[in-house]
């Protein structure tokens, strides 16, 4: 079938022509299967709000994780700066290095295996444990 014949064909009420390549496609098609160009006039509106997809428990865990991880993000660089300014940065233990590496690997695995929701929950637990570890370390340093 030649290109000129293709343009003369009658269109069904459920089909339309692609705005880029001219291929006849379904009326409701969002993307042309021939060229991959997104079609205009197709509604892509989201019918539910983004906040409706998470439960209150997930929001609560996310808030707690954020509340714990923000100070941790300030304390850890401060601790490393303090060690560097005292000249003891070279004596950094392997535990500190491996803890940072393993927490990063755990975070990446959580996102890949469980999606965003599982990653938020896991980071909430890891953040809480890490926060408790920092508080315990401060208590030991102060001598409480």
Structure overview:
By secondary structure, this protein is mostly helical. The chain has 2 domains: 1-45, no CATH class; 54-142, no CATH class. Helix content is 60%, strand content 4%. It is built from 3 helices and 2 strands. It has helices spanning 3-8, 56-86, 94-142, and strands at 15-17, 24-26. A two-stranded antiparallel sheet has the order 1-2. A hairpin with a 6-residue loop joins strand 1 (15-17) and strand 2 (24-26). The N and C termini lie far apart (87 Å). The model is unreliable at 1-11 (pLDDT under 50).
Record the SSE blueprint.
Layout: H1 3-8, E1 15-17, E2 24-26, H2 56-86, H3 94-142
Antiparallel strand pairs: 1-2
Summarize the structure.
This protein is mainly α and 144 residues long. Helix content is 60%, strand content 4%.
Shape: elongated
Strand content: under 5%
Order of helices and strands: HEEHH
Outline the low-pLDDT stretches. Answer: 1-11
Considering DSSP H and I runs of 4 or more, what fraction of the residues is helical? 55-70%
Question: What is the terminal-to-terminal distance?
Answer: 87 Å
């Amino acid at each position: 079938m030649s290109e000129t014949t293709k343009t003369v064909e009658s269109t069904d009420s459920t089909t339309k022509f692609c705005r880029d390549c001219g291929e006849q496609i379904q009326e409701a098609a969002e993307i042309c299967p021939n060229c991959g160009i997104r079609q205009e006039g197709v509604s892509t509106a989201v019918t539910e709000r983004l906040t409706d997809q998470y439960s209150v428990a997930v929001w609560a865990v996310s808030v707690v994780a954020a509340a714990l991880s923000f100070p941790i993000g300030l304390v850890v660089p401060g601790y490393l700066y303090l060690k560097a300014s005292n000249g003891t940065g070279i004596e950094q233990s392997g535990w500190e290095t491996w803890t940072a590496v393993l927490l990063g690997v755990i975070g990446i695995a959580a996102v890949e295996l469980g999606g965003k929701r599982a990653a938020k929950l896991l980071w909430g637990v890891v953040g809480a444990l890490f926060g408790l570890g920092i508080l315990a370390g401060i208590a030991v340093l102060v001598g409480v």
